[in-house]
Each structure stands twice: as structure tokens, then as C-alpha cells.
Amino acid sequence: MYSNNIKRIFKSLIIAFIAFIATSANAQVKSYFGFFGGVSNPISDFKRADYYNNNSGFAKKGLTYGLDGAWYFRKNFAIGASITYQDNGELNQANADSLAAGYTKSFSADQATVTATKRYQTVNILLGPQYTFEKGKFLLDLRASAGILKVFSTPETNTLLSGVTNQTAIFYQKSSSSTVLGYSGTAALRYRLSENVFLTLRGAYLYSPGPSITNEGRTTNLGRLVTKQPFNTLNTTIGLNFGL
Amino acid sequence: MIEGCKKDTIVGTSYTTKPFQANINGSVWAPDTISNAITYNSTNKTKTFTLEGTKAQKQIIMNIILSNASNTPGFTTGTYNVDASSVLINYNTQVYQNGQYVFQPHGTVAPGGGIIIVSSVDSVKKQITGTFNFYSRSTDSNGDVTVDNILGGEFTNLPYTFASN
Fold it and tell me: Which chain B residues touch A116 with a CB distance below 8 Å?
């Protein structure tokens, strides 16, 4: 599914590229700044809710918003930057029940109780080169960027087992707050509402190897054990941009 | 559906699906050591169903003795009330005694203090299914009474051995 999404994105980009390259004007594009908001969609392992896959993130669709801008230093070439907040939710009841069932089986426990708190919340600061194709009232911006993700929190769980002699204490998968690297590919279609105002539809793929996860209170490494949580999201947003 | 930024505490609970389990004083207990046998005594013409489970310093032993029984690997289904003679249940806990750990009765399951329901027996596959509940009452040296409640007990398609002596 992950590779299908990537293929679909590349296919769309190539078609858009060919269409625009054939007809695009060759004038200096104006630098701009703007804001956007929309939906952050977790994809790949980040979205999966599989107890037996330690990379499964149990992430959810959430709100994203931020600021975006680009400075054109030569015709259609620019340096683009964005600062984005995104929320990818928390564990729901089905997730907590699934984890409890998994730990019951892994530890051969009589009973497992999993208590989940906190959620995925990050701010991404990304910077990278951008190329813009212009055709009439439409502009297509393609950007590859890299930067940092400030992770404010990830879901935290504590697990209490019953009937397991060597694991009588609660063990924890702690919430993480750290700064990690992130990479992004963005395609934005801008529609000129007036000379300096654009309505922008934007799709941004984000990948990060993600934060390290600390586990406490375990006496064994049995069962699901998450030590790192990669992030994969596709953010679809709408916004307004203002030419400078 | 887009999730809002609410901060919830979600609690998920799962119980064992092991074929022999009970709830002891509010906690699920599923023994990891099980002995389950039906034994025919040709001299007395009795058939005894003995189910014993042990885990985490707790032990449950149940016995049902049928009179005038036949020498077959099956067992009569039905409801059996503890009567201290032909239907017996013991609840034991592990204690340190004379330099070693041994299981000792933790109270007594008095007549009327428990019930075993044998709901089905597959004498070909030698599997037995049923439920049980009981309480065990103990009194310490100060005269204080403790009651252990063993509820929701079940044994489901539990394999047994058959022997004819």
C-alpha cells in the first residue's frame, strides 16, 4: 500500500510536470508566504494497528495547519520553507483491547490491562528547493525538503499483567518528546484569485525515522516492544498564499 | 473521521482464553499445571473425576465420585453440589513449612459451599466441559474469618485420561 501511494504520487507529478513544461511561461515567479490547514493522514506502518508489528503506530487522521513560503532567487527556482503542526491522534478502545489481548497471549497471562494516554503531536520545520510551473492563473509548486520534527508527545501505555510470576509490576511504554530529522515531498497547486492572492491545494508527504521510545519496568522483552516509532503521513491541505 | 485534540485515558482489558480458569477473589486465574483424570475402580464400582490445577501458589482440586458406575471412559453430566463425601473441592495455597514449599488447604469448602456442573463429555476424544463456583472459609488463630470466593470457574473441552483399576 505504501509503495502504491508513492507510485501514485510520482505518476501524478510526472503528468503534471509534462503538462506544465509544455506550456509554462518563462517569467520571474513572485515570492510568497501563506497559511494552510487540513488533514494529516497517517500511512504505512504509522497507520497500522498490528500488535505483532513493532513499527505499527496506531496513528489516526488528525488536524494539521501551518505557515508556508517561498523565495524565488531565479525565475522559477525558489527556496521554500514551512512550519507545520500536526496531530495524529491517540489509541482508541479497540487499540487498547488489541494490545491487552496481545500481551495476554505473549506473556501467557491470566489478564492484561493496558491504559493508554497521550497522543501524537509534532511541529515540523522543513526547508528545501522548489520549482514552479506557471500556466495562466495556475501555478504548480514542487518542493523537496528536509528539516526537523519537534515531537511533543507520542502515545504512552502502561500494562498490568496478572498471573505472570516474573512480571508483577506495571511496565511502561513512555511518551516521547524529542527532535528528530524529517523529509518531505510537496506538490501545491495555486490558483490566482487576484494579482497577489492565491488559493492553494497542497499535498505533502512526510517521512521521519521518528523518536526513540523508552520502555520501563520490564523484566523481559516478551511481547510487543517498541523502541523507535517511524512517522509516515500524507497531509492534504487548503490555504491562501500572498505574493510579495 | 478526523480526531480532535482531546486528551483521553483509554483502558483496554483482556482475559486469558485458556480452557481451565476461574476468578479467585476478583482476579482471573488460569492454571499452568493441570491434571485431569477419570478413574474407574472395579472393586468399589466407582468412577472418580479428578481435576487439579496449579499456578502462582494457588491450587484447586475437584473430585466427583460416582457410585455404581460402569467401566467406560465417559462421565455422567449433571449438577454436583459439594457434600464433603462424594463431591469435594479443595482450595490450597503454597506455604513454607519445614524447609520446603508445600500446598496446604486454605480453609474448607463446606457442604453446600460449592457446585460443579459437568455439561458435556466426549468419551471418544476424552474431553470434558463444565463450570464451577465455590467459597472456602478459613479461621485464623484470632478467630478472624476469611472467605475466598472462587467464581466463574470453567473447564472447556479439557482433555482427560481414563484408567480402569
Answer: 9-12
